Amino acid sequence: MMNHKPDSAYHALLSIPDKAIHTRRDRAYYALLLTQARHKNYIPLRNDSLISIAVNYYRGSREYDKYARALLYKGICVEEMDDPQKAIEVYAEAEKIALQTNDYLTTGLINSQMAWLYRDMYIENQVDIERFKRAMEYFRMAGHKMNQYSVASLLGQKYRSTSQLDSAYHYLGTALELARQMGDSVAIFHNYSLLA
Fold first, then answer.
1. How far is CA 135 from CA 1, 4, 49, 159, 176, in A?
2. Chain-centroid distance, C-alpha 174
3. What pTM was computed for the model?
4. Domains of the chain by residue range
5. CA distance linking residue 74 with residue 136, whole number of Å
6. What Rg, from alpha-carbon coordinates, does the chain have?
7. Which of 27, 85, 97, 127 has the fewest CB atoms within 10 Å, measured from its CB?
8. Domain range 6-126, its CATH number among 3.40.50, 1.25.40, 1.10.3470, 1.10.287
9. Residue 120: CB partners within 8 Å, gap ≥ 6?
10. What pLDDT was estimated at residue 1?
11. For residue 15, how far is the Cα from the chain centroid?
12. CB 69 within 8 A of CB 103
């Protein structure tokens, strides 16, 4: 429900009464899901107090996939609180934990968040491109075509504005093929227009 109908997930989470959340584990999972739902519904994450409940709980557990996801959302919170350097540190910690799991979607999201942040910080050493490429590979491994498509199209556009047209055509072609596989006519048209 979280990936396909985040608004429904958000409202379902809000409807859970506090007294139904009994254990520390339940509170941690609820904090993780509610933070994730807020982010997916574009509700600003103005502080990290909620997600810190999850981070603190999962830090001491063996649930590495949830710990990595909690760190991902903590990084997003810190980034939204306008502390990009601290956000990079949190994302790096999240990546280290995620690499101990088979949760390729979370690993891809971590790399994607880092790439956007590096790009927004105007770092000129191509780190953003390398992070986007890693994200795309993890999305492929996760079987998450929509995220893979988004990164491929973005890389194609990024290379299109440089003299590396072979790379632009490669990534735009990949994006076009993914759009076809998903049956997304708007994405197909968009990438054809970029290839023209």
1. 23, 20, 27, 17, 18
2. 20
3. 0.92
4. 6-126, 144-196
5. 22
6. 18
7. 85
8. 1.25.40
9. 84
10. 76
11. 26
12. yes
